[in-house]
Design goal:
Layout lengths: L1 H55 L13 H17 L2 H14 L3 H19 L7 E6 L6 E9 L2 H5 L5 E7 L7 E7 L4 E2 L4 H9 L15 E2 L2 E4 L7 E4 L1
Helix pairs in contact: 1-2
Amino acid sequence: MGIQIVFKKLKIKLRNYFITGLLISLPIAFTIFILNFLFRLLDDALSPTFTKLLITLGAPIQAGYRIPGLGVFMTLVAIFLIGVITTNVMGAKLLQLGEKILERIPIVRNVYTGAKQVVTTIATTDTGAFNEVVVVEFPRKGIWSMGFITSQTRGEVQEITTEEVVNVFVPTTPNPTSGFLIFVPKKDTTSLSMTVEEGIKMVISCGIVTPKHDKRDALHKGSTVEIDPQTINKQDIST
């Protein structure tokens, strides 16, 4: 019986290691694959043209010569130009039209949507906007959700409440760029010892990637961030 328990725990641990490695390596491998594809595509397409142009201009090179790094350089230029074009109104409309077309293609739709979601999540998640990782009872009593304290509540929302409350952002998973803004009494928040980055990783991985925790570090209730009224970006944690 004891051997079966040990084997089961080992199996679970090995599975978690594998899934964690997969979650980390897949975005990296996908990025390398796409960039390598673009490098080769642009290099094969443009290198002969540039070589002929250089020979015409009198450069001492032979036909078939390949310019080192041309694919990398042109990929960077292409990405920059795409960014320039899509930031104006006409470019944005063309981008939306292209996305609608891609979303109608069965296999391409899944690949494009998944890649876009991963890139958007990484690019737009501002961990600096969060001050502390907490758990709160949401959406009802007895159900705990992870959230991030963004600031102390001020203005009309604070004035109509009878207790001092804080702004807590409860993200959705696996995309933490969307979620719920809830106003929670300070005493009803339970602070976690994990960092904001660790909390984001846990949300994105749907709880598979769990930060290591020292059991000697007890959870403390009612801990939140005191915010200087003069500057909202400077906070001190008070217990």
